[in-house]
Amino acid sequence: MGKLMDEVELVQNGNWIGVWGENWVLAGCASCNGVFVLPPEKVSQRCPFCGQAALAQMNPADDRPIYTQPPELVVPFAAAEGQLRASVSQFAKSLWLAPADLNENTLLGRLQPVYLPMWLVDAQVQGEWQAEMGFDYEIVSHREQFQNSGWQTERVKEKRVRWEQRVGRLNRQYDNQAAPAMEEQARVESKIGRFDRQAPKPFHPGDLQGAVVRLPNRPPEDAWNEAVVGLQTAVSQDCRLACEADHSRGFKWSPRFASQQWSQLLLPLYTSYYLDDDNRAQMVLLHGQTGKLYGTKRASMKRAQRVAGVIAAAAAVFLLLTLALMALGFTIAEDALAWAGLVGVLAVGVGGTAVLPLVYAWYINSSAKQ
Ligand SMILES: [Zn+2]
To answer: Ligand 1 centre from 110 Cα, in Å?
Structure first.
């Protein structure tokens, strides 16, 4: 009986994942510690977030993450294919001496839709507040001016703000206040821009086809402080509207929060990668709504060496020619010495540029490390 109960519990515990997609599995990355839910055919890939390790499948019952509830809302992917292609193409072309793997087709071929988690919290907000409310008004004054040999009166309108101290009491329900559910959220948005959360769609099980979903790694208790900042903005705005004021400043409140309900919103991101000289994946991120791209730039030192080698070889040819002309000049035709000088200068000039590809590749790669 005990064993049967255990098995029943196991099915129930492990079954939470079925809501996300049919046969979906749980997997984790040992490098960035990201945990994902994803279709089974995607589990053998490299981590879609950091690219540094292969994903390892986990048991949804035994390794059940703390936050497994499905999202309430989803911000759909909206960037047009042409937009993505243009971003990727521009990035691939932007780098001289790029590794062979960094090209438009590989990047597009590896494009992976990834949903990032965001917390949404509903809360009942009560408390007292005080603020200075500003009301616009106009004053009209008259100015006398001497013009065209006579005094003229000119009407002058001036805009002013009247500030009044107001206090009030608030008791209101606020829904869907957003707060990051992922430690890396701010870093991602600083690279590709913020997500527009204005038009999310309700989540329906099974409609995240082809995507992988990153689960939250930031507990609601942690994210709550940021949700409160957003709530304060919303509340101060509401108080201003309630006072029919045009401006407000110095908002202070002593809030009490009750019945917080946490749910999730998913944000659309595409990731891709290319392999550098050391076979390390360099990640490329694309905003799922705007197509804006961010990618780490790594030049290929091997290619830089090859280009430097070709330039050095050309310099060597000029040098040999110089020596030949010098030999000719000292023996048969004195005129050749002038030519030897000219070609010698060329040899030194061309030889000097051989270091440029190496310096460029070194510079790009050392600035990419930061
Ligand atoms: Zn990872």
So the answer is: 16
